[in-house]
């Protein structure tokens, strides 16, 4: 769905705005399994990365989380920003929830608005969103309560709960159950008109609009630009690897030995470095340094794709070839795989974001290791 991709793009921008507005978090956690037990409390904002994250206690500020599985059984007092395969809210989010994942389920309470980009979105009976809902997904099931407006774009939308504001729906199939209640107006775009079963109520009336039939296909210019961007990245990568194969191997090795540290440091750097650069830009003395740092930051983001490509390609080629091949072959294969994955619906933006975060984190950790090695040898 086009709107899902737009939501994913919006989330990546919002994550950076989170850092610019709130600064570096008071709580930083990273690892395989991260948990905040019932009765425990974190003060201030928190940033968490891990395989599995479960919050049963209280977070006084915002939570920014990147994980495979995220469960909120406790209370996040402010905003929740989550990227995870599964996001399950059982407890309460005091303000807004912004989530990207495969499945997002809200069984508890969202005190503000909800913004979701996912494959399956579910608001079961008992789940409450006190603000408005904006979701782009494949399937949406709304059996709980939405106290504001609902803006849903999906292939299939099922409504059996209560929407106290207006409902703006776009889907191939929209199904109302007898328990559905829409207090405001229902505006929907669908190939078929909705059948309103006995018992279902739409107090504000409804308006149906047929979707426009879009021509499939892509322009020659867009295909040419994508090929040019890929070849440009490949050329830069080949130059970088050729100049320092040792460096490429070192960063790849860091991704192998310290994947979660790479993820955590990459996420911190992605958010905190722009804040530091922005502060330097406000000072006359720091302006030249800010320009230099900004150039280095952009270059690091660009090269992060190169190093992750070397890592992925090397792992695959290592299965078939016992003798080590040149990192350039790993780079070529890895970039092709990353480019193809980035074209997969619902997967493209997460792949791009994770590539940058992992690559940036591994690059920083490898630079740190080289620094301490040089210091141990008294070279600096």
How can the largest sheet be summarized? 14 strands, parallel
Q: Count of helical segments?
A: 7
Radius of gyration, in angstroms, nearest whole number: 23 Å
- Unreliable parts: 1-14
Number of domains: 2
How large is the share of residues in beta strands? Answer: 25-35%
What can be said about this structure in brief?
This protein has helices spanning about 1-20, 220-245, 245-255, 260-280, 285-320, 325-340, 350-375; strands at about 25-35, 40, 45-55, 60, 65-70, 75, 80-90, 90-95, 95-105, 110, 115-125, 130, 135, 140, 145, 150-155, 155-160, 160-165, 165-170, 175, 180, 185-190, 200, 205-210.
Walkthrough of the structure:
- With 380 residues, the protein is an alpha/beta fold.
- The chain has 2 domains: 2-209, no CATH class; 220-376, no CATH class.
- The chain is 42% helix and 29% strand.
- The chain contains 7 helices and 24 strands.
- It has helices spanning 2-22, 220-243, 245-257, 259-281, 287-320, 327-341, 348-376; strands at residues 27-36, 41-42, 46-55, 58-59, 63-72, 75-76, 80-89, 92-93, 97-106, 109-110, 114-123, 128-129, 133-136, 139-142, 145-146, 150-153, 156-159, 162-163, 167-170, 173-176, 181-182, 186-189, 201-202, 206-209.
- Strands 1, 3, 5, 7, 9, 11, 13, 14, 16, 17, 19, 20, 22 and 24 form a 14-stranded parallel beta sheet that branches. Strands 2-4-6-8-10-12-15-18-21-23 form a 10-stranded parallel beta sheet, with no helix packed on it.
- The longest helix is centred in the C-terminal third of the chain and has 34 residues, at 287-320.
- The radius of gyration is 23 Å and the shape is globular.
- The model is unreliable at 1-14 (pLDDT under 50).
């Amino acid at each position: 769905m086009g709107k899902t991709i737009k939501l994913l793009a919006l989330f990546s921008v919002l994550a950076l705005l989170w850092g610019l507005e709130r600064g570096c978090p008071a709580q930083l956690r990273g690892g395989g399994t991260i948990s905040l037990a019932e009765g425990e409390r974190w003060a201030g904002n928190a940033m968490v990365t891990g395989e599995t994250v479960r919050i049963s206690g209280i977070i006084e500020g915002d939570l920014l989380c990147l994980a495979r599985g995220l469960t909120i059984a406790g209370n996040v007092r402010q905003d929740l920003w989550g990227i995870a395969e599964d996001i399950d809210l059982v407890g309460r989010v005091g303000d807004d929830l912004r989530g990207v994942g495969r499945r997002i389920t809200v069984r508890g309470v969202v005190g503000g608005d909800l913004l979701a980009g996912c494959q399956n979105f579910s608001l079961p009976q008992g789940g409450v969103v006190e603000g408005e809902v904006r979701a782009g997904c494949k399937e949406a099931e709304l059996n709980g309560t939405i106290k504001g407006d609902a803006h849903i774009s999906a292939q299939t939308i099922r409504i059996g709960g209560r929407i106290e504001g207006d409902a703006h729906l776009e889907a191939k199939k929209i199904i109302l159950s007898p328990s559905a209640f829409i207090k405001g107006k229902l505006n929907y775009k669908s190939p078929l008109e909705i059948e309103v079963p006995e018992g279902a109520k739409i107090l504000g009336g409804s308006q149906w609009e047929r979707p426009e039939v879009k021509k499939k296909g892509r322009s020659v210019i867009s295909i040419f630009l994508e090929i040019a961007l890929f070849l440009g990245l490949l050329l830069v990568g080949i130059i970088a690897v050729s100049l320092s194969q040792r460096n490429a191997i070192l960063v790849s090795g860091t991704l192998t030995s310290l994947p979660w540290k790479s993820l955590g440091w990459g996420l911190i750097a992605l958010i905190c470095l722009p804040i530091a650069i922005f502060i330097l830009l406000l000072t006359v003395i720091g302006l030249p340094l800010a320009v230099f740092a900004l150039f280095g930051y952009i270059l690091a983001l660009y090269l992060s794709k190169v190093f992750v490509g070397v890592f992925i390609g090397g792992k695959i080629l290592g299965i078939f070839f016992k003798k080590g091949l040149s990192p350039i072959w790993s780079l070529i294969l890895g970039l092709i795989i990353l480019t193809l994955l980035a074209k997969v619906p619902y997967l493209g933006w997460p792949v791009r974001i994770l590539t940058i975060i992992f690559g940036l984190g591994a690059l920083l950790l490898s630079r740190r290791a080289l620094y301490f090695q040089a210091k141990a040898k008294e070279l600096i």
